Amino acid sequence: MPYVLDRKAAILTEESVLLKNNSLITILCYYFAAKIFTEKGILFMSIRWNILLAVIVFALLAWLYSLQQNDMPTLVKDDSAPEYIAKQMTTTVFGPTGSIQYQAQSSNVDYFNNDKTVFSQPILYVYDENQIKTWRLQADTATLTDKDKLTLQGNVKLQSLVETSKLQTIDAERAFVNLTTQDITSDTMVTLTGLNFTSQGKALDGNLRKESATLKEQVKTYYEIQKN
């Protein structure tokens, strides 16, 4: 009987130990589960906050970028603006045979992409077939198009560099010169001076190489009589 009691007591003791062990294991399982859940919850919350903060930062950056774009000037190329500009330029142009066609000096030169060049305060020299300077062309501005079409504008003065030329100077407000043929025209009032004469009139047609000029309208001519 004592043996049986002792046996039962032993069995009860073992069961109690097992229950205690199971309870401890259960508690530990709940603890680790709660810990894992809590850590996962913290991690989940951390990810949510990171995403939210990233969205806020991105929105602020986008807003700042839009402000900068509004403040920045819009860079649009002006088609009327020159491609490049040169200062204090001297340009020598040669003809197909290699001879000098003309030489241009200017304080400022604007080069455009449509085969147009604008000279400020230009001085141009044209040459004859012997490579000798024959005429000096001067104006406030000059516009060169199609490589040889020259438009002189403002205080235009053409002066012969040949002392024996019968035509010495041409003064006008505007003149058009073909630098290849040296033809000259004008649609403004023109003053011509030559050997012993001065002529004034409107609308000029002439040729520098031939030393010829004809006024078409309102012509007045004054001759100087040489005294013996």
Automatic annotation (TrEMBL):
Chief subcellular location: membrane
Q: What processes in GO biological process is this protein linked to? A: Gram-negative-bacterium-type cell outer membrane assembly
Q: How does it sit in the membrane?
A: Single-pass membrane protein
* Gene3D superfamilies for this protein: Lipopolysaccharide (LPS) transport protein A like domain (2.60.450.10)
Q: Name one GO cellular component term.
A: outer membrane-bounded periplasmic space
Where is it localised? Cell inner membrane
Q: Name one GO molecular function term.
A: lipopolysaccharide transmembrane transporter activity
Superkingdom, natural source: Bacteria
Q: What residues form the membrane-spanning segments? A: 49-67
Q: What does this protein do?
A: Involved in the assembly of lipopolysaccharide (LPS). Required for the translocation of LPS from the inner membrane to the outer membrane. Facilitates the transfer of LPS from the inner membrane to the periplasmic protein LptA. Could be a docking site for LptA.
Quote the protein name from its UniProt record: Lipopolysaccharide export system protein LptC
